[in-house]
Design a protein that fits this description.
heterodimer; A: 184 residues; mainly alpha; Four Helix Bundle (Hemerythrin (Met), subunit A); 7 helices; 70% helix; 0% strand; globular; disordered C terminus; B: 108 residues; Helix Hairpins
Amino acid sequence: MANLIFYLMAALAVVAALGVVAARNPIMSILALLGSFFALAAIYLVSGFQTLAALQILVYAGAILVLFLFVIMLLNLANETKLERIDLAMFHGRKAVWTFLIAGALLGISAFAALAIVPAAGDAPALPERGIDELQPLADAMFSRYLLPFELVSVLLLATAVAVLVLAKRNRGPLNLDQGGEST
Amino acid sequence: MSVPPSHIFLLAALLFAIGAAGFFLRRNVIVVLMCIELMLNAANLTFLAASRMHTLAHGARPDLQGPIFAIFVIVIAAVEAAVGLALVIALYRNKQTVSLDDVADLKD
């Protein structure tokens, strides 16, 4: 049963990923990406990673995709979608040939690695009773052994917040200091 | 679930290749960013598949390195999306476009 769910969700994830690349409208791309993320969350769940499945839905589907949706709605790209010519010409041409060569090489190398190097496990895996990433051991590891990367990542988040503020600020030319009085 | 680990790795490879192809093919910056998210997800799946493989190999003793790295990858993905989308907004404000063909100034 769990095997069936895995293969169904794997097929759904791949189809949805193809939809992200092929969809003409960016909003359809976002919806396809949402489907891919949910399929991956289901795969995490049946693989024994319940915490990561929850994080996947909370952070990826809940936060990151909403951010993408916000930007698309904010920019009002309704007429912008016509600009992108997704026809068969996109899949010919030199760039497309190189793209398929590179992607195919990536796929070939990793498929070879997966099939030839990864040892085949026994057919009756015994996973831990309560999943691999139980929350308490995960938190213990995160705040003891991996404390330094955790702190570094928090600094990175702070730097990102500042960077995003600077980037998205409306550029008003030279700083005008006496503007505050008349705006109130 | 008794899926062999190599099948999970294959799925991750497939997702990564699709994301990479979309990254090179598409011209809309927002869709390009989405393809990057797809590739980061494939990397996450690889970490978790490796963690599952090691857990199975060591007699069901949980291997936590994979999940922890996956969490860090999720944080990096969020950071990348935020900065990338801020760049998109700045680009749209200056050039009224999100098409990569219109901003290929450095290529000439």
